[in-house]
Amino acid sequence: MADRPGRGVRQTARVCPLTPTDDRELLRARGSLKWTGTRGDIAAWVAESDLGTAPEVTHALHDAIDRGLTGYLPPHERAGAAQACADWQRRRFGWEVPADRVRLVPDVIAALRLTLERLTPPGSALVLPTPAYMPFVTMPAAWGREVIQVPMATDADGRATLDLDGIDAALAAGAGLVVLVNPHNPTGRVHTREELEALAAVVEARGATVFADEIHAPLVHAGHRHLPYASLSPVAAQHCVTATAASKGWNVPGLKCAQVVLTGDAHVAAWQDASEGVSVLGAVAAMAAYDHGEPWLDETVVYLGDNARRLAEVLATEAPAVGYRPPEGTYLAWLDLRDALPPAARDLEPGEVAHWLGRASGVTVVDGARCGEVGHGFVRLNLAMHRGLVEEAGRRIAAALRG
Ligand SMILES: Cc1ncc(COP(=O)(O)O)c(C=O)c1O
């Protein structure tokens, strides 16, 4: 690795990892959006983590600052980040993808906008399985694109699954692209090979494109396996654009360096460079994360998985009417409050449930209605915090629901 410019300097941890703390004053003093953007006692809303990042990432960033690497993105850093992403996909998921098919963009929303602009019929609608990551619901309208919300179905085991008939109907009506988020924000599903293959058949039959947002792929819990959609088959690879980033796995979303993987041969020519706005520190962090941050990630995923199960225990005892399956991937908990809300909160308007819960419990969460119409009555809770705060959040929510 040392022979490749941009990838040689980062190796071992010399910085202590940030240990989880339940000290709210300290958390606020650290200054994150998560803790300073709410007055609630427990900040469990925006998808940032209190657990810091890998020491290798911290070290690489310190090193870059010390070298004065705070200018525009140089070609060697761009190439290094693309190569590190390709290597990571191969090592972690067994997906062989050439580094010259990996392009950098500032973030996943930019990747979606560019994919729509460049690879779908002008003005065509997009299909969004809901509930969904909130900007996917709202942003496309600003780009002149209609979002067709297709509520996810629930299978016999109570898992959220794609409604293939609904997706097919939306494509038949002229939509050009399906947004697949896997692992899924907010439900935490990690789709199985069978589910993904069934989607690929529908999309291929309609000549449409899949935008596969795999930003949460590093965060998959024991017993589940992330399968990159484009690695399913040559057919899926040709109709798919994949977006990913180190930003969720290693908690560096502010550093602006997502990656787009172009597996469709026809897509390569249509995709001119779009790296304007990518930050050099984001590229440095992505390289360090992918190349050296796996041990820290693995420990963090275990901690997050235990948090998810602990919340399930607390809710099962103290608020059994709350619907919750620990996530298969991501650090997000999707709580169905529809049967658990006290009479005073039953008639709340969409968007009001999280406000009510925040007032009643002191826990700041994301309102499910922001994830699409089907999310009314649900809230999304961020589990990426000290275990004690997760337990306290569960107990406070339970007490609020009891009225
Ligand atoms: C599913 C999903 N996609 C995209 C993003 C945006 O991430 P970024 O801004 O790092 O590209 C998020 C952030 O939470 C997300 O959960």
The radius of gyration computed from the alpha-carbon positions, rounded to a whole number of angstroms, is: 21 Å
Structural class: alpha/beta
- Which architecture name of the largest domain does CATH use? 3-Layer(aba) Sandwich
Number of strands: 14
The distinct ligands, each listed once, are:
pyridoxal-5'-phosphate
**Major β-sheet profile:** 7 strands, mixed
Beta-strand proportion: 5-15%
Task: Give a quick rundown of the structure.
The chain has 14 helices and 14 strands. It folds into two domains: about 25-55 and about 295-400, Aspartate Aminotransferase, domain 1, CATH 3.90.1150; about 65-290, Type I PLP-dependent aspartate aminotransferase-like (Major domain) (Aspartate Aminotransferase, domain 2, 3-Layer(aba) Sandwich), CATH 3.40.640.
Mind explaining what this structure looks like?
- The protein has helices at 24-30, 33-36, 55-66, 75-93, 108-119, 134-142, 164-172, 193-205, 234-238, 265-270, 280-292, 294-318, 353-361, 387-402, and strands at 42-43, 102-105, 126-130, 147-151, 153-154, 160-161, 177-181, 209-213, 240-245, 258-262, 332-336, 363-364, 366-367, 378-382.
- The longest helix is centred in the C-terminal third of the chain and has 25 residues, at 294-318.
- The chain folds into 2 domains: 24-54 and 295-402, Aspartate Aminotransferase, domain 1, CATH 3.90.1150; 66-292, Type I PLP-dependent aspartate aminotransferase-like (Major domain) (Aspartate Aminotransferase, domain 2), CATH 3.40.640.
- It is α/β, with parallel strands linked by helices and 403 residues long.
- It has a 7-stranded mixed beta sheet, sandwiched between helices. A 3-stranded antiparallel beta sheet has the order 11-14-13, covered by helices on one side. A two-stranded parallel sheet has the order 1-12.
- The chain has 14 helices and 14 strands.
- Mean pLDDT is 95; it is low at 1-5 and 9-13.
- Helix content is 39%, strand content 14%.
- Helix 6 (134-142) links the parallel strand 3 (126-130) and strand 4.
- Residues 47, 107-108, 133, 181, 185, 213, 215, 245, 247, 253, 258 line the site of pyridoxal-5'-phosphate (PLP).
